[in-house]
């Protein structure tokens, strides 16, 4: 039997959380810094005793795990989650589905293997053979949407007021190429074979557009809103980024991000903050742990709302002091004047003790009370810089 859910029970909390997030996005200080922890189905599966094999292969298990996760966040973790919704979770294998790659999924002999794509392009001539798929006729894409429909029907049957989302989309060209070539071949070929790589990127851009328009026609995504996740591009030098990432990403934003633009880079973005701010003109950025948060805060303050950068490794270390220092570092450098939402950089990995995660949330709420005061930061001597209330 699936976990019961009564959304009305959490309405007051959800409304408070939405107000707090909305204030931060408007560069206004609410009662405190918002705290939203990036959590996904694999983490929920782990804390509730499910395996990835069960989670990804059984839609009922997936839905039940997600509902339990929502209730756990609202009643136990108590971060500023803002909505209750289910989603068809496939992991990071969209490129594998769209381009008919071999995909490794968790199985009975390895129940905790994360889904991953076996790179299919190993020679330059294979770029010419790569075809832009037609979403209407591609077998793998059709199977995905058939599964999405089953998931929506299951959700509606069990939780009539719970939205169920989905939609197949690849990463922007640089990161999509990383899945098809593998990272080592990607970065090597950018230097050795730039002409061929642009040829590949144009095909990937066309594929992104075909999938986006198919999703928009099916009303499964908000038209005019575009979020790009481009981790691989963050490891390019600025000059390579301007050559191989910027033109394609900018064109996608121009075509599909008329109303709202966001970006996720769980890698470096501190060397291209001006491009993100002034060229892409994004409204919100998700910042990975590898960035200098002081550079990010200076570049984005008052112009781009951003979240993340807290290093999840502090949760592995486990000492309260290590967690406190990491929380204070982010709040100290980023939260004054609003526009910052506290979160860990990257994914919250299965195996991170939930008790430490809750301690992090509670401490971030305590330190981040507005108006910020120097007295909130007991580890201030370790943070460096100055604090302007």
Characterise the protein shown here.
By secondary structure, this protein is α/β, with parallel strands linked by helices. Helices cover 48% and strands 8% of the residues. The chain is built from 17 helices and 9 strands. Helix 14 links the parallel strand 7 and strand 8. It is globular. The chain starts with 10 loop residues before the first helix and ends in a 22-residue tail after the last helix. 42% of the residues are buried.
Which descriptors apply to this entry?
389 residues, 5-stranded parallel sheet, two-stranded parallel ribbon, 8% strand
β content, as a range?
Answer: 5-15%
- String of helices and strands: HHHHEHEEHHEHHHEHHEHEHEHHEH
Overall residue-averaged pLDDT value: 94
What's the helix count?
17
Count the strands?
Answer: 9
Helix content: 40-55%
Rg result: 21 Å
Widest sheet: strand order?
Answer: 5-6-7-8-9
Structural class: alpha/beta
Distance between the termini: 52 Å
Cα shape: globular
Biggest beta sheet attributes? 5 strands, parallel
Unreliable stretches covering 5 or more consecutive residues: none
Strand and helix layout:
Elements: H1 11-25, H2 41-47, H3 52-57, H4 59-77, E1 86-87, H5 94-98, E2 102-104, E3 116-118, H6 125-129, H7 139-158, E4 164-165, H8 173-181, H9 183-192, H10 194-217, E5 225-229, H11 238-244, H12 246-256, E6 260-265, H13 273-279, E7 284-287, H14 293-300, E8 305-308, H15 313-317, H16 320-334, E9 340-341, H17 354-367
Parallel strand pairs: 1-4, 5-6, 6-7, 7-8, 8-9
Antiparallel strand pairs: 2-3
Helix pairs in contact: 8-9, 8-10, 16-17
């Amino acid at each position: 039997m699936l976990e019961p859910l009564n959304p009305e029970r959490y309405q007051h909390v959800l409304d408070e959380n939405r107000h707090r997030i909305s204030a931060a996005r408007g560069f206004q200080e609410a009662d405190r810094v918002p705290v939203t922890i990036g959590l996904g189905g694999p983490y929920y599966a782990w804390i509730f005793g499910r395996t990835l094999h069960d989670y990804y292969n059984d839609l009922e298990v997936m839905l039940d795990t997600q509902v339990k996760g929502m209730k756990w966040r609202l009643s136990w973790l108590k971060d500023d989650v803002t909505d209750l919704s289910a989603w068809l979770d496939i992991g990071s294998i969209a490129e594998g589905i769209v381009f008919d790659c071999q995909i490794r999924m968790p199985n009975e002999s390895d129940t905790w293997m994360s889904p991953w794509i076996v790179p299919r392009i190993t020679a330059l001539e294979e770029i010419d053979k790569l075809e832009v798929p037609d979403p209407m006729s591609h077998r793998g894409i059709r199977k995905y949407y058939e599964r999405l429909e089953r998931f929506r029907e299951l959700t509606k049957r069990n939780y009539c007021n719970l939205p169920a989302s989905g939609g197949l989309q690849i990463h922007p060209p640089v990161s999509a190429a990383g899945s098809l070539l593998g990272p080592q071949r990607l970065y090597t070929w950018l230097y050795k074979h730039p002409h061929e790589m642009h040829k590949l990127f144009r095909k990937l851009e066309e594929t992104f557009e075909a999938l986006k328009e198919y999703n928009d026609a099916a009303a499964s995504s908000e038209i005019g809103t575009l979020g790009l996740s481009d981790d691989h591009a963050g490891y390019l030098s600025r000059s390579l980024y301007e050559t191989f990432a910027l033109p394609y990403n900018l064109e996608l934003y121009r075509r599909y991000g008329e109303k709202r633009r966001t970006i996720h880079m769980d890698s470096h973005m501190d060397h291209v903050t001006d491009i993100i701010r002034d060229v892409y003109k994004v409204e919100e950025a998700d910042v990975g742990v590898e960035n200098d948060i002081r550079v990010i805060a200076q570049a984005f303050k008052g112009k781009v709302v951003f979240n993340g950068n807290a290093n999840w490794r502090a949760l592995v270390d486990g000492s309260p002091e290590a967690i406190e220092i990491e929380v204070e570092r982010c709040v100290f450098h980023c939260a004054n004047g609003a526009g910052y939402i506290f979160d860990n950089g990257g994914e919250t990995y299965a195996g991170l003790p939930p008790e430490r995660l809750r301690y992090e949330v509670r401490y971030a709420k305590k330190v981040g009370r507005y108006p910020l005061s120097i007295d909130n930061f007991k580890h201030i001597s370790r943070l460096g810089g100055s604090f302007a209330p």
